[in-house]
Amino acid sequence: AGAATVGGRATRAVLLTPKADDAPLTQARVWVDDRDGAVRQLELTEPSGAVRTWRITAWQPNAKLAGDTFTFTVPAGVKVVDRYA
Predict the structure, then answer these.
(1) Which of 14, 18, 64, 66 could form a disulfide with 23 if both were Cys (CB 3.0 to 4.6 A apart)?
(2) What contacts 11, CB < 8 A, 6 or more positions away?
């Protein structure tokens, strides 16, 4: 999908389209750094036409994280609604 500069870095964009007609996205565009292969930007387009863009400005590969970094605890008094139940 072409070349671009993202955050001062030379990148190549790759355009991805889903195979399934009922996919939650109509396309995804990913900008990959020419030098180190890191993803620098991601753009997702939804069937409604809404576009979400993430630009990665800083990251640390292989960062050490605490075991509970991605653990979510429901706060006291919150009603949980499970749409799959």
Answers:
(1) 18
(2) 3, 4, 5, 31, 32, 33, 34, 40, 41
Model confidence, pTM = 0.70
Taking only Cα atoms into account, the Rg of the chain, rounded to an integer number of angstroms, comes to 18
Q: Are 42 and 65 in contact (CB under 8 A)?
A: no
What burial class does residue 64 get, using C-beta atoms within 10 Å of its C-beta: 0-12 exposed, 13-18 middle, 19+ buried? exposed
Dist CA 5 CA 55 (whole Å): 12
**Tokens 């930007």 belong to residue:** 41
Tell me how far apart the alpha carbons of residues 85 and 82 are, in angstroms, rounded to a whole number: 5
